[in-house]
Amino acid sequence: MSGPDPRFVDALLDWRATWLLARLALVSAYLLGAIVKLSDWSAAVAEQAHFGMAPPEVWAAATIAVELIGPLLILSGRLVWLGAGMLGVFTLLAAITANAFWAMPAGQARFMATNAFFEHIGLIGGFILVALVSRLEQRRA
């Protein structure tokens, strides 16, 4: 039994839309988060208060700004490093704030927080890769 045809993989990676679709997949949760928060401001503020962020209105506005501006920079292909950096730092802070598994007793909640924390670390790796690939593309142009 053989694996997928490498020509198919090459064609997919060479397809012009793949780069945009990959970036969209990476930032889609952030864009959606911003839209949801904008559509329900009181819930956005309550979320920040839940995590002890004060004043919650300022943090809600900052979160929305990062979740909108970062993805738009990445998707536009301009200042990708800045958008990736914004979302990477935001994601690290969110992971530490919302998924502090090291401060939880053993059990299901700790298990889930540990998984979520390391999923966030994986997203940060994705942002680093997007910035690196974008820089390589700019140098090639």
Describe the protein:
With 141 residues, this protein is an all-alpha fold. Helix content is 82%, strand content 0%. The chain contains 6 helices and no strands. Helix 3 packs across helix 4. The mean pLDDT is 95.
Itemize the secondary structure elements and their pairings.
Layout: H1 6-14, H2 16-39, H3 41-50, H4 56-76, H5 80-98, H6 108-140
Helix pairs in contact: 2-3, 2-4, 3-4, 4-5, 5-6
- How much of the sequence lies in strands comes to under 5%
For the record, give the distance between the C-alpha atoms at the N and C termini, rounded to a whole number.
Answer: 40 Å
Helix content: over 70%
The whole-angstrom Rg is 18 Å
Global mean pLDDT: 95
Q: Choose one word for the global shape.
A: globular
Largest sheet: none
DSSP summary, beta strand count: 0
Could you list some keywords that capture this structure?
141 residues; single chain; globular; 82% helix; mainly alpha
Short description:
The protein is mainly alpha-helical and 141 residues long.
